[in-house]
C-alpha cells in the first residue's frame, strides 16, 4: 500500500515540474515566474564559458569589419556608461574676411559663436535558434557558422543605417544625360525622374563628373583625408567608371599609401571605396525609364559622426540549450545587439551625394 502511495506522489511531483517549467522566463536581471512575477537570481551553472564568449565575440567582429565601409570614415564619439543616450558635437562658427580699415575709425566686430549637432542612440538586434538535433548531428559547427553570418548581418545593419542617414543631406549633384552614340551632353537633370537610362542616353558617373564633384568640394573648402577626398560607390556604378582610361587601379599606389577597407582606385584626387550597400534607389528616386538610380557619397574629413557607446557598440550573445531550450533543452540561440545613432551629419558641405544611373539600372533591385 505504501509503495503505491509513493509512486502516485512521485508521479504528481514530476508532472508539476513540467507545468512550472513554462513559467521560467529569462529576464534582464533574473529568472521571472510569468504567473506570480517572482524573481530568482541567475545561477552559475547555465552560463557560457568565458573562453567561448571571447571566441564568439571575436568571430562576430572579424566577420563584421570586412563589410563596414561607411563607418571607417566617421568621426567617432565615445559615450561612457551612465552618460545618457545623446551625444553633442560642437563646432565654432567661422569668421569672415577682414575689411579695409578707415583711419581713426574702430571697425564693427564680428559675431562669434558655436553650433551643435546631436545624435541619439537606438538599439538594434536579431537572433536565430538552432535545435539540439541540428547542433548534435550537423557535419559543420552550426553555432560557429551562425556567428559568422551574424557578423555579416551586423555589418549590413550598421552600413544601411549610416547610408540612410546620409541620404537626407541636401548637397546633391546629378550626373548629366549623355548621348550613347557621341557622348555629348544632352541635358542636366535636376531630379531623379529626369535621369536617362536607355540605350540612346544615360546619366552616368564619368571622369568628368568626378572632376566636377571634386571641384565643388574644393570650392566649399572641404578638408581632405590624408590629402585625398573619398567616395563610397556601388559596384554597378564602379563598373561604368572603371572603363575610363583615366582610372588608376588601387594596386598601383598601394605600396606607398595605406588603403581603406574596400578601396579600389583613384581618379582626380578622389579615392573610391566599393560598397554593395551603397544606395540603390527606386520609388521617388526612380529614373526616367522607371529603373533604379544610385547615390555615390563624396566626402572629406569629419563629414559625419557616429556614437561609439562603451559596452553597447556590438555584442555577441549565445545562449546554450541549457539556458533557453525549454524543459527539454531543445534549442540554443545565437544573436547580437548593438547601439548606434546611424550617423549624424556634422558638416553638410563636406558631404556631396552624386546621383547617377548605370548600365545595370534596369536589372538591379533597390537595397
The Rg value, from CA coordinates, equals: 28 Å
Determine the oligomeric state from the structure.
single chain
- Report the total helices: 7
Termini separation: 73 Å
| Residue share in β-strands | 25-35%
Major sheet: size, sense and barrel closure?
8 strands, mixed
* SSE run: HEEEHEEEEHHEEEEHEHEEEEEEEHEEE
User: How many strand units?
Assistant: 22
User: Which structural class is indicated by helix and strand composition?
Assistant: alpha+beta
Count of the domains: 1
Mean pLDDT: 83
Name the shape in a single word: globular
Question: Can you describe what's shown?
Answer:
- There is one protein chain.
- The protein contains seven helices and 22 strands.
- It is globular.
- It has one domain.
- It is 25% helix and 28% strand.
Structure described in brief:
This protein has 367 residues and is α+β, with helices and mostly antiparallel strands.
Amino acid at each position: 500500500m505504501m509503495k503505491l502511495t509513493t509512486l502516485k506522489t512521485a508521479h504528481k511531483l514530476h508532472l508539476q515540474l513540467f507545468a512550472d517549467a513554462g513559467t521560467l522566463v529569462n529576464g534582464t536581471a533574473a529568472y521571472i515566474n510569468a504567473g506570480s512575477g517572482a524573481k530568482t537570481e541567475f545561477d552559475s551553472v547555465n552560463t557560457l564559458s568565458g573562453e567561448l564568449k571571447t571566441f564568439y565575440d571575436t568571430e562576430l567582429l572579424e566577420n563584421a569589419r570586412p563589410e563596414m565601409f561607411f563607418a571607417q570614415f566617421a568621426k567617432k564619439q565615445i559615450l561612457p556608461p551612465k552618460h545618457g543616450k545623446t551625444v553633442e558635437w560642437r563646432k565654432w562658427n567661422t569668421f569672415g574676411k577682414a575689411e579695409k580699415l578707415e583711419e581713426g575709425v574702430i571697425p564693427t566686430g564680428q559675431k562669434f559663436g558655436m553650433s551643435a549637432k546631436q545624435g541619439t542612440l537606438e538599439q538594434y538586434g536579431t537572433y536565430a535558434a538552432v535545435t539540439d538535433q541540428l547542433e548534435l548531428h550537423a557535419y559543420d559547427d552550426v553555432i560557429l557558422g551562425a556567428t559568422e553570418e551574424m557578423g555579416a548581418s551586423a555589418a549590413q545593419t550598421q552600413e544601411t543605417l549610416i547610408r540612410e542617414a546620409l541620404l537626407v543631406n541636401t548637397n546633391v549633384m546629378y550626373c548629366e544625360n549623355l548621348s550613347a552614340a557621341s557622348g555629348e551632353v544632352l541635358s542636366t537633370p535636376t531630379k531623379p525622374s529626369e535621369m536617362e537610362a536607355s540605350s540612346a542616353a544615360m546619366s552616368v558617373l564619368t571622369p568628368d563628373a568626378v572632376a566636377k564633384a571634386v571641384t565643388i568640394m574644393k570650392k566649399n573648402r572641404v578638408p581632405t583625408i590624408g590629402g585625398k577626398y573619398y567616395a563610397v560607390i556601388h559596384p554597378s556604378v564602379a563598373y561604368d567608371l572603371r572603363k575610363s582610361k583615366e582610372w588608376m587601379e588601387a594596386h598601383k599606389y598601394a605600396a606607398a599609401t595605406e588603403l581603406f577597407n574596400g578601396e579600389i582606385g583613384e581618379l582626380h584626387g578622389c579615392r573610391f571605396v566599393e560598397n554593395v550597400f551603397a544606395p540603390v534607389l527606386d520609388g521617388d528616386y526612380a529614373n526616367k525609364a522607371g529603373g533604379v538610380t544610385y547615390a555615390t557619397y563624396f566626402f572629406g574629413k569629419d563629414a559625419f559622426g557616429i556614437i561609439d557607446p562603451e559596452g553597447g557598440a556590438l555584442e555577441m550573445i549565445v545562449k546554450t540549450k541549457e539556458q533557453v531550450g525549454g524543459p527539454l533543452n531543445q534549442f540554443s540561440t545565437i544573436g547580437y545587439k548593438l547601439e548606434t545613432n546611424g550617423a549624424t551629419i556634422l558638416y553638410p558641405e563636406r558631404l556631396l551625394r552624386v546621383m547617377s544611373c548605370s548600365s545595370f539600372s534596369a536589372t538591379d533591385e533597390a537595397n
